[in-house]
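tool_call: predict_structure(chain=1)
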Amino acid sequence: MLSLPLIASALIIGLLGAGHCIGMCGGLMGALTMAIPPEHKAQRFKLLLGYNLGRVSSYGIAGVLFGLGGWALQNSPLALGLRIFAALLLIAMGLYLAGWWFGLNRLERAGQHLWRYIQPLTKRLLPVTSLPKAILLGALWGWLPCGLVYSTLIWSASQGNALHSGLLMVLFGLGTWPVLIISGLAAEQLKQFLQRQAVRIFSGLLLILFGLWTLPGPHQMWLMGH
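tool_result:
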């Protein structure tokens, strides 16, 4: 069973990544909203929920798949290496959010190879006229290359339990819901707030601290005490 700190951590990572989500997916959410035919505008909120439900479902599936790898490594010397790698990715994501280092872009570019095969499928679902189509489109959208998702995916897999990894990814996805749904409804004031440098630096610093806490070592006790 997942512990409360892990549950809170997954949700918080999703919330802290809101600024990155606006940059990566906010425009896509707006485009998907604009793609809703005029006669279906009244269903906009329902379709937005469908997009995000499909997206989070993909995160959960990816979490289980990667979690199987983490489970296989759980009792091997590589398990420690996976945890260290997950922590370093979270730190890199924090630096990215704060605007101090953009090396994580290379990881996102690596994911473009898979996206090339998935992207053509999304065009077949437009325009979105029903909830099932919205969910399916969201499920495809969940595989969009994203450094924040990759970082969280490796972190969840480092728990050594496939089911827990999948659940953590679902919780992470739920943490991103408020911002992306509001973004899809064109709440410009919230988007501008999340894009402020001070907000991005604050979010980045918290993610860096979380990455440091994830790194194995005696410093964990000190961080927990403070």
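agent: The radius of gyration is 18 Å. Proceeding to next step.
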